[in-house]
Design brief:
The protein is mostly beta strands and 294 residues long. Helices cover 8% and strands 50% of the residues. The protein contains three helices and 18 strands.
């Protein structure tokens, strides 16, 4: 029963993010605001629906050419002490399986023979304050073999990440790699909203999860959420054929700034900065007008 209580408590955070995952900080838990819509600068929208417990139960992404809709069903099995989220989309059912701590461990396409799409691994530790913490450190794409091999965390935020995928070229293996460095020059909270805004600007973070972008944002499972939003991201792509030297293919730097209200809730996300005239609107967030206390 104790294990079930811990699991259920962690899962309450999965789509509401009421508390801070970084137990090393001195910050008190904040009262989340519930996102209604996220509108991209080109007019595309991500719209969230909620059940009576204010859990996200529907996600819709609409742009100029298509609309994608997902329904989410929550399952807690008290007999086996397990929990899953079913994601229904285009007549198919996908299942998010969680471990005993409420952290996402696998993403599965259901059918006559269930197909595991991705798996996730974590580092678990006890903080100096005696609190338990999980940090996502890797994932494997079971369809392509792509793998996030390493994520380094500091102060409740991912700082560096390395991903790899092996492709066969001219009969030989060639390893393609992506390294990402996350910077935090301004401390913009990623826990004031119930969704994971971090994944709007950093598609590389869950690139081998097989989760579509809109679910990456809506689902914020224990152990995977950054406490802060990045202000700069550097992505380096390279390749290394078997037996040969590494070749850098590209290096891209992205910068982000944020508008917040007086309480720190994110209202707008921009690319670029004010001081060099590169600032452009990227996303605008609107919240539901509902009480945040239960």
């Amino acid at each position: 029963m104790k294990r079930l209580t811990i699991l259920f408590s962690m899962l309450l955070l999965a789509l509401t993010a009421c508390k801070n995952n970084d137990f090393d900080t001195e910050y008190e838990p904040v009262k989340p605001k519930y996102v209604d819509t996220i509108t991209r600068a080109d007019g595309a929208t991500l719209t969230l629906g909620y059940d009576s417990d204010m859990r996200v139960n529907s996600v819709t992404w609409t742009n100029a050419t298509e609309s994608r809709h997902y329904d989410i069903v929550y399952n807690l099995d008290t007999t086996t002490n397990t929990a899953t989220f079913d994601v229904l989309h285009n007549g198919k059912k996908y299942t998010m399986n969680f471990n005993e701590y409420g952290a996402l461990k696998s993403y599965v396409l259901n059918g006559d023979e269930p197909q595991v799409l991705s798996t996730f691994t974590y580092y678990n530790s006890i903080t100096p304050l005696g609190a338990f913490r999980l940090e996502l450190i890797g994932m494997v794409d079971k369809l392509t073999g792509g793998e996030v091999r390493r994520i380094d965390w500091q102060g409740g935020t991912p700082m560096m990440q390395i991903s790899e995928i092996v492709k066969v070229e001219d009969g030989n293996n060639c390893t393609y790699s992506t390294s990402v460095r996350y910077g935090y020059q301004a401390y913009r909270s990623n826990i004031h909203a119930n969704v994971n805004l971090f994944n709007l600007m950093t598609p590389e973070y869950l690139e081998h999860s097989n989760l579509p972008m809109e679910l990456r944002v809506a689902v914020s499972a224990f152990g995977s959420r950054s406490y802060y939003l990045p202000t700069d991201v550097t992505v380096v792509n390279g390749r290394m054929p078997a037996g040969e030297n590494y070749e850098k293919l590209s290096e891209v730097e992205r910068e982000y700034t944020y508008d917040t209200d007086s309480e720190g809730y994110i209202l707008k996300i921009y690319t670029g900065k004010d001081d060099d005239n590169t600032k452009e609107l990227l996303y605008e967030i609107t919240y539901l007008n509902v009480a945040t206390e239960k």
